[in-house]
Amino acid sequence: MTRIRDLLIAWRIRRARQLNNSDSVWFEAFCNEAPAPRYPATKESSLTNEYKVSPKNTKAEEYVRFSAETSNSSKCTRPSLATILLLILLSAVFLILPIIYLLHCFGVVNVDHDLAQHTHAHHSVKDKEHYAPSSKVHQELEYSQPDHYTLHEKRPSDNLLPPPKPDYKQCKLLKDDEKLDCYPEDGANLSGCEARGCCWVPRKIKSRNRKRLNVPLDVPYCFYPPNYETYKYFNITETAYGLTAFLRRNYKSAYPADIDIIKMTVKYESENRLHIKITDPSHSRFEPPYPEVPIVDKAASNLSYRLELNQDNTGFKVVRKADNTSIFDSYNLGNMIFSDQFLQISAKLPSHNIYGLGEHRSHLMLSTSWQRFTMFNHDGIPKENTNLYGSHPFYLSLEPSGNSHGVFFLNSNAMDVILQPAPIISFRSIGGIFDFYFFLGPTPGEVVSQYAEIIGKPFMPPYWSLGFHLCRFGYKTLNETRKVMQRTIDAGIPLDTQWNDLDYMNNSNDFTYDRKNFRGLPAFIKELHNKGMHYIPLIDPGVSASEQSGSYPPYDKGIEMDIFVKNSTGQPFVGKVWNRASTVWPDFTDPHTVDYWILMLRSMHKMFQFDGAWIDMNEPSNFLSGSFSGCPKSSLEDPPYLPVVEGGHLNYKTMCMTAQHFAGLHYNVHNLYGIAEAIVTSFALAEIRGKRPVVISRSTFPGLGHYAGHWSGDVYSKWIDMKYSVPQLLSFSMFGVPLMGADICGFNGNTTVTLCNRWMQLGAFYPFSRNHNTDDGIDQDPVALGPQVVASSKKALAVRYSLLPYLYTLFWAAHVQGETVARPLFFEYTSDVKTHSIDDQFLWGAAIMITPVLEENSTSVSPYFPAGVWYDYYTKSVIESKGDTLNISAPLDTIPVFIRGGYIIPQQSSLPTTTQSRLSKIQLLAASDASEQGCGQLYWDDGDSLNSIEERKYTLLQFTLKSGELRSEPVWWGPENPPNLGSVTVLGVKTPVSGVTINQIAQAFRYDTIHKYLLIDNLNISLKSPVVISWK
């Protein structure tokens, strides 16, 4: 399995031999984040494909894994007789005698005697460098095993007995909310249910015998009885990193090829992070190569959690030490299954306040009323209760105490996640392993930061990418593109980046452009660059496979380099997307594809100098379900359990599951295709341009935000779609993808003036702000919809552009510390239960609250103001809230925006482009809290270079406010510096001001006696040295 770094290092090694090195850019350079040290260790799910390299048979010298010593080679001399005798004596004392003692005491090395009476919690790690499973474990595993893993091979589990019939007296003990579905497939009946050892208690309602996709989730008829016999521990051993346990299954499950013996590896990775991995110790199973998670080989100390295991109980429990809250409790739920193509585990949760589990269209707080979340990346118009473009098996939960925790299930196979009212969560995957990370927070922001430590912190976008973007599928010519762009500029609407959908391509083929309809494209892009603007084209992964031989290098070169995804016979897999007749797909998990993709993008960049990449259709999407001849009959195409995917088949509108990638079968890597493309594309752009890359991807997976941003796909031009874009934005913030937004005014269908008017206002506050729509809809750029939309767009975007220094600083904090950019109110007010379900207003960072108008014909909103001091952004008037919902006027041209007291916001003038606005002077907006205090930061670099942070080519300023004084101090003053300070506004100055000094020099000022704010303007002060502004 290829890891990210291996893939790109392999590319570098080949490139050093084959290509000119003069303009190379290192992978570490484009990441904008110094990589953590990596160990040359493989993933620890299983040691190899053959059990002969188990700990039992491994030489001792291969197991010095945790030693702090290093060895030095030296010449050896022949040992003397005395030395030999001494070694024999030492061996007898320190090796043979302890072994005899252990055999005498235990017979085998087994679970501590205390385990039978006591819960196994974290103890101090013993002084040993590795664990050695007992001989009992080896006896259990010593079956004849084939050299390679195949589906449904003869396994020890084939000898398992079926479960006993259920005890219906026990069945009656369960409450409806706690019943776990024992027959999640269609067709459940009494005999089939009892054959699984489960309880059959149908409810007195109409039959559920309907089409599978229409079966509603509810209390299951067939459910597991209490204390159902499943896996039991039979060996637990402490290790330097935590513990290792082995479990054995008692009875056969309903799914083929149960794994009889499984291994649990527990790592106490940090004070607030626990890692639990459950694998097949006898066979290697698929594990996602992305994201590249850190490998930890030593247990942390001062843990905020404890892990509870008990040999008499099934499952495990993760407990927060501070208040004994069980955050994940799978004790005795009895439904754990680990078979070849079906993995299932459930756990009781401490709270109904659950967020995440994307990508889905839903409210921010998820319902626990029998909800199902299917994860399998799919190209479809967003709607409720279906799998969408991305898969994010991560959730964040607010506990009753106000603490927060997060859980990440690292698995790339198709899955269903079920929430039921107990509350209980159930994970059902059709492959891979159980690989769980638990994050103890305790604040929501800390949970997300801890998650980002695992999946990779968000990339640092170039400054210009935070401006406004304009696009449409349907600009049929360059002249039309230019016309729409120019009327936007002429209307005074800020604009930074012009985009083109696939219209610019020749015959919809990648790495080309239509030299007739888009004649002059290279010169057009140069004009944009001269104006300080940028250009981004669409780049689909699919490559045309039907062009005349020798006429289309992307196909010819791909065949020559052998980098396309293969079908089950080893030939290039052929499907159909936008290309004229047929399509093949690069395999982005193959290291050779890095060469290929750079070569193709470089050849395109030589034709026209684009500045970023929009990678679409990378779920991967296919207009066919499989190939032209369908897909081979296989349990990969029709697994024993089918998650409730759109279309009812895994290969619906995508590749066959039997297609082959360098990293494995498409069955396993389907959800990874988009992130793999994003990784290679981001690297290629940095290599070609030598500047910070920006990539926007439709398909997503955990870790995508480390390389790219995301937009929400082909949403409708409807009010409900606009409304749902807010919780989706906030969810992706939690997923570590802060550069995100929806197509402003909607993509599918025709927008309206009233809808686009309000959507342009909301879209001005998407971190990724782009207006884009389909080719069969009306024009929806602001000018096309009339003066009202133009006025709203100008006003809202003027606020955005003035706040860009603050927004850019938020992205710096996300990149360095894993913080969120757009965030829900409950992130800042966890103890205020009224904020927990709010998803129609949101924050930028901690300091700015946006309240969009989401209802047609409304000219007011009723936002909730958490307790504290707030200020209207436009009027500077103060709102002192005790936790109030207030009616706020929202005229047609205005989106209400509020500043939170206690924060200092860096700003600049709003100008037509970010290139121009960055040259204007810095403005400080200081909002006093009830104590007349506040703080803030400004991060500044050149906005486009690689490694600005690592090479310390930036400036970081700290601002503090107290009664009568505002201070600016440089934390770091590097070679890239912000403009001078031009003005200061202090809100919440309660008493009239009689005098102002700056660094003890008198300064002119104005004081607004009505709105109680102080304005000091017409300044030109360098921020290189401390600046102290005082008033009295």
UniProtKB/TrEMBL annotation:
Principal subcellular localisation of the protein: membrane
GO cellular component, one term: membrane
Localisation per UniProt entry: Membrane
A single MF term (Gene Ontology): alpha-1,4-glucosidase activity
Domain of life: Eukaryota
Keyword Iron assigned: no
Gene3D superfamilies hit by this protein: Glycosidases (3.20.20.80), glycosyl hydrolase (family 31) (2.60.40.1760), Golgi alpha-mannosidase II (2.60.40.1180), Spasmolytic Protein, domain 1 (4.10.110.10)
GO biological-process terms attached to the record: carbohydrate metabolic process
Listed transmembrane segments: 81-103
Protein's name according to its UniProt entry: P-type domain-containing protein
Any matching Pfam family: Trefoil
InterPro entries listed in its UniProt record: Gal_mutarotase_sf_dom, GH, Glyco_hydro_31_C, Glyco_hydro_31_CS, Glyco_hydro_31_N_dom, Glyco_hydro_31_TIM, Glyco_hydro_b, P_trefoil_dom
Coiled-coil region(s): none
Keywords (A to Z) from UniProt: Disulfide bond, Glycoprotein, Glycosidase, Hydrolase, Membrane, Transmembrane, Transmembrane helix
Family membership: Belongs to the glycosyl hydrolase 31 family.
Domain P-type: 169-226
